[in-house]
Structure formats: structure tokens, C-alpha cells
Amino acid sequence: MVNSNDLYDIPRPTLAKVVNIGGVGMQLKDVKPLAPEFQRIVDKAAGIVVFSFGSVTPSEKMPSSWKLAFIDAFKRFPKYHFIWRYVGTDLQDKLPPNVHVFKWLPQSDLLQNPKIKAFITHGGYNSVQESISAGVPLIAIPLFGDQPKNAILAERHRFAVSLRKSDISADVIAKTLDRILTDHSFSRNAKRLSQMVRKQPVSAAHLIVSWAQFVAEFKTLDNLVPAGTKLNFVQYHSLDVIAFLLSVSIMILFVLWKLLKFIIVELCCLFYRNKKEKKE
User: Fold this and answer.
1) Stated pTM of the model
2) Where does the record say this protein resides (predicted)?
3) CATH number for domain 31-199, candidates 3.40.50.11810, 3.10.350.10, 3.40.50.2000, 3.40.50.360
């Protein structure tokens, strides 16, 4: 079982034994009520932007220039409130009234709130899936690993804008935020994909349960074992095909060499014959 979904993941070769269960546990019915400290912010804001780089790349470790750039950009959108996952305490005296930092965020529950207008993320796969499930457009700033691929995936479905980390500045962030918040096509595309995932004929949760029961009943599934696992050494490495192509190539080269040799000999004979006739 693979944490992926055919509706939004990048096309790739697969097998009948692979079951895609991407998005499991992210349904609307799984959403929990927000804690009071988050609910108060949501209630008083016209719109919310969530900002989190996850636990692997905590934003408190980003360069100071980045931190100040984000704060400066957020100041330019007083109508919106920004909820930022930030563990450090070094920004407390620098935060404007519309920026709120928390050491931990109920990210999935928060994104499902209708007041969430955008999500600034590092592009982790779970974050992208949570955004799709909630129908929230993304600003992706990929840092490493699979994050650039995930950012491309989100852009491919036209619900995200990707920023290179080398381009981070207050002006660039503000321009990107303005684009995401004012161009409603990003939100429409995100919501459409979210509805597709929710209404897909067979849900991820159903696939997990039904396939687990199926395997438990029938044990090994030899019917689904790919033929490639039964190839011998010669077949697996295509040595027979390589040998055939190599033989054909050698034969063609041999014929060409013989033909070229014949042409050269004939030309030489013709040249010397003409030369001899001129002397006579």
C-alpha cells in the first residue's frame, strides 16, 4: 500500500499489487474542533494564511534574513492573519498584530477551516496532501528531498506557486501572496481537486480495509505476481536481445566494410588504368 493517489500524483509505472491509499485519514469527517487559542484568531480574521515548514525543517532555524522577510511581507496584508509554526522566542518583539506564532499547529484541522485562504509550506508530501484534501492553495518553498517534485506536482494541477529559496525576499513573498490571494483560479483548482478526491468511487479507507481482508482470506496472491520476477539471468538482463542486435550490427558493419573495400579497389584500378593509358 502506497501513500499516493492517481488523481494528483505524477504518472509512473506501477504493478497490480500496488494499492494507492493517498489521503487516508484526511476526510472532512476526521476534522476535530480547533483549540480556543486558534479559534479566537480565526473568528476575528477576514482570512487566514497558515505557515509551516514541518518538524523536519523547523522555521526557527531559517536565516534571520528570511524571518524578517516573511514578517515584513505579512505586515503588508493587515486584513489577513498569519498563523506560523515557530518554536523559538526570538521574534516576539518583532511580530505585527496580524502574525501569531505557535510551537505546534493542528495543521490538518486548521486547513479544513473555510477561512483558510492559503498555506505556505516547504512542500512535504503530507502537507501537499492535506492542502489537497482541504482545497487550500499553496505557496511552496521546496528545500530538499522530494519537496521540489511535490512543488512541481502542485503547480501542475494549478493550485500552487513555487518559490526558490534563493529568491526569498519581502517583495517576492508579498507579490506571491498577493497573487495567491487575489487570483481565485488557484482556490477554484484546489477545491475542484479536493472534491474529486472526496468523491472518488472507492475511498482510500475502503481500499485499506477491503484489501487487508482480501489478503487475510487468500494469503499469497500468486495471480498478481509480475512475470518479471520469474525471468532468468539472461532474460532479466536482455542478453539474448543484446546478442541478436550485436550480431546484426556486426554483420551490417562487415557488409559495409566489404562494399567500401570493393569501391576503393575499383577506384584505384580505374585511376591507375587511366594513368597508364595517358603514358602510352
Assistant:
1) 0.77
2) Membrane
3) 3.40.50.2000
